[in-house]
From TrEMBL, chains A, B:
HAMAP family: Guanylate_kinase
Binding site for ATP: 21-28
Enzyme class per UniProt: transferase
Protein name, UniProt field: Guanylate kinase
SUPFAM superfamilies, A to Z: P-loop containing nucleoside triphosphate hydrolases
Assigned keywords, A-Z: ATP-binding, Cytoplasm, Kinase, Nucleotide-binding, Transferase
Catalysis performed (reactions): GMP + ATP = GDP + ADP
Family assignment from sequence similarity: Belongs to the guanylate kinase family.
Keyword Lipoprotein assigned: no
Function noted in UniProt: Essential for recycling GMP and indirectly, cGMP.
Species name: Paenibacillus residui
C-alpha cells in the first residue's frame, strides 16, 4: 500500500505517529488494535523509574531506569517528553524513536494530550493524530462508566475532557473513534498518505533530473 | 472509512482531487479504475468547443459549447483552466466542481501537468496528486510503446516528460504508478486522510466548546 522499493525511493525514513486524545476516548484500545493490524508498526517504549511488575520486560514494556539515570536523561535532552506521576518519572526516549525511524520503520507513540504537545515541540515532523469520541454523550458515558464516581468527580473529568479537546487545534488530523476498526483504518490511511507526501520524493527527483538534463 | 455523519461533522464539503503526471504515465487508466472502485467519486466533466462524436452525451462526456459560449466562459472566469488544442477549446467549468463539492461529494479532475498548475492558482484548496512511472526505464518503455515513432520523437517526448516531472514539486502528493490497483489504493488513502485533516473539524469543535464552557 506504500510506494516502497521504487527508484524514486521516498521511503527511506519511517514516520512518527503520535496518537492522543482526551482521557477515556479509547487511545489504548485503538493503539493495540492498530498494532495487531500493522505488524511492521513499532510501538514507542517509555522509560520509567517505576519498578518492573511481574512479567514486565526491560525494553519491551518499559525501559526501566533508576532515578539518577532518568534525571541524567532529562539533563542530556534524551527524552522527547517526560512527566512525574505518583512519585515516578515517565518519559519517551528520543534514541529509540530515532533508531526506529532511521531503520525505515514507522513508530507509534500513544500519549496523553499535554505530552503529545511537548513531543511536537521537539519533533514537529511527527504526524499528530487526535482521537475524538463519536459524540459528547458518548464521552460522558465513557467517563461515567469507568466506576461509581460522584457527580462532582464526573463533572471535573468532563471539564478536563473539554480542555483537552480544545487542544486538538495543535494536531494534524482528527479521527472520530466511532468504531475501533474504522478508526484504525483511518489512521492506516493517514500513514499511507503521509508516505506519499511530495517532500519525501523531491530530493531524489531533483537529483535524477540533474543527471538526465 | 471516513468520519461521516458524526456530531463533529467535518464532512460537509467535498474535496477536489487533481490527478496529473507526465504524458504516458497512465493517468487515464488510474482515474477509470478509481472511479469504478469509488462509486461516490464524481468525475469532473470538461467543456469543449469540439463537436460531439457519436454516442457522446452533453454533460456526461463533455459540456458541448459553441465558440462564443466558450469565449464568454473565459471572460466571465467560469473556468478553472482552459487550453486550445488542434483548433478547439477545452476547459474545466468551475460551477460543476463547486456544485459537487457543496453537495458533499468528492470530485476528481484528471488533467495534464500544466493544466493542473493553472487549477491550483484558482483552487489552491484542491488536493494535487502527481503520478510517477515506477522507473525511468518504464517511462521510456511507455513512451516508446505507443507507436513506431522515430528516435528523435522519442527523445523529444522523454525531454518533455522530464520537464513535466520537474513540476511535481508544486503538487501535494506523489504516487508511483507501479500497479494500477496499488496506485488507486494510495489515492483512496489520501482522500480518507484529507477528510481527517483537523481544519475540517475545528470550527464545530470551537463552537461546541463555547456552548459547553
Amino acid at each position: 500500500m506504500t510506494n516502497k522499493e521504487c527508484q524514486w525511493g521516498g521511503e527511506e525514513r519511517g514516520i512518527l505517529i503520535v496518537l492522543s486524545g482526551p482521557s477515556g476516548v479509547g487511545k489504548g484500545t485503538v493503539c493495540s488494535a492498530l498494532r495487531s493490524m500493522s505488524k511492521d508498526l513499532v510501538y514507542s517504549v517509555s522509560a520509567t523509574t517505576r519498578l518492573p511488575r511481574e512479567g514486565e520486560i526491560d525494553g519491551v514494556n518499559y525501559f526501566f531506569k533508576t532515578r539518577e539515570q532518568f534525571l541524567s536523561m532529562i539533563d542530556n535532552e534524551e527524552l522527547l517528553e517526560w512527566a512525574e506521576y505518583v512519585g515516578n518519572y515517565y518519559g519517551t526516549p528520543k534514541a529509540f524513536v530515532e533508531q526506529t525511524l532511521a531503520s525505515g520503520k514507522d513508530i507509534i507513540l500513544e500519549i496523553e494530550v499535554q505530552g503529545a504537545l511537548k513531543v511536537k515541540e521537539k519533533f514537529p515532523e511527527g504526524v499528530f493524530i487526535f482521537l475524538l469520541p463519536p459524540s459528547i454523550d458518548e464521552l460522558q458515558n465513557r467517563i461515567t462508566n469507568r466506576g461509581t464516581e460522584s457527580e462532582e468527580t464526573i463533572r471535573k473529568r468532563m471539564t478536563a475532557a473539554v480542555e483537552e479537546i480544545s487542544l486538538s487545534e495543535h494536531y494534524d488530523y482528527i479521527i472520530v473513534n466511532d468504531k475501533v476498526e474504522a478508526a484504525c483504518n483511518r489512521i492506516r490511511s493517514i500513514m499511507v498518505a503521509e508516505h506519499c507526501k511530495k517532500e519525501r520524493y523531491l530530493p531524489k527527483i531533483k537529483k535524477w533530473i540533474e543527471e538526465v538534463l
